[in-house]
Amino acid sequence: MTNPADVAPLISALEQNVRRVVLGKSDTVRLVLTGLLAGGHVLLEDVPGVGKTVLAKALARSIDCDFRRVQFTPDLLPSDVLGVSVYDAPSGRFEFKPGPVFTHVLLADEINRATPRTQSALLEAMNERQVSVDRTTHTLPEPFLVVATQNPYEFEGTYPLPESQLDRFLVRVRMGYPSLADEKAILAAQRERHPLDALKPVVTGADVVRMQEAVRAVRMEPPVVDYLLAVVRATRGHKHLTLGASPRASLALSRATQARALLEGRTYVLPDDVKALAVPVLAHRVLGTGAGGDATADERERVVADVLDAVEVPL
Questions:
Q1: Which CATH architecture has domain 1-217?
Q2: What class is the 218-315 domain?
Q3: How many C-beta atoms surround the C-beta of residue 25 within 10 A?
Q4: Do 95 and 88 form a contact (C-beta atoms < 8 A)?
Q5: pLDDT exceeding 70 applies to what percent of the chain?
Q6: For 110-132, what is each residue's pLDDT tens digit?
Q7: Between the N and C ends of the chain, which has fewer C-beta atoms within 10 Å?
Q8: Predicted TM-score of the model (pTM)
């Protein structure tokens, strides 16, 4: 098991490198890094033009490993993402041609512009780290991270992600607009060229695997475990929710809090880690009490925030 102290310089270098490009969004950067360190996937949701793709690219370019970007569109097919078997005449056999999902970091840009059939093609890859094509299973490389971006559902030409797909994302992150000072800095930084052009890798794929192993060594004491479970279970009987967070959500929140503790330079989880991550980890995994369980992201986030206020924090 990797010692958390051994990877602290790597984590710091990775964070600082991404923040060279993504200005004024330290909390957002940390949430994305939490997803990476926890071995999960990240969903970046916000209006166009606030830097979702830039953040994903900055993270990918900071790691010396394979990176692929797929622009999701309504005409994109599952085989365009997963790959396809092609008949090879000389050998008389079908040969598998891997798709862009066979990479270490996959940027699924505007994922909710693809049809549900294509969206669901990623389910097995995200959950099992493998792809099945023509009754043959192909293992994906490690590390494997999907960073997906999406525009709000009310935008024309988008297809809401189903609950099963949302559940595969460890955290759901919003970028938000930059402050005035940060926007001025962005204009100055891109006056001659984009800072992404000069960004170099600072860690390797093997380093990322070591960091993910170090997360598993972060301690979570029984009172913190009880608090985390109390928060999750409180969503299941909430009057404004028809579907609360599942045991998979408990596991996701647990691993995310370990990753956050490591980012903060600690070898143990605090209740503050649970409070900081409950909304980005749980809000997209619950359903509201509206028609068909419909509820906006804001409404679900408010419900999870209310749960945090109601559950007693251990001293």
A1: 3-Layer(aba) Sandwich (3.40)
A2: mainly alpha
A3: 22
A4: yes
A5: 96
A6: 998 888 888 888 888 998 999 98
A7: C
A8: 0.90
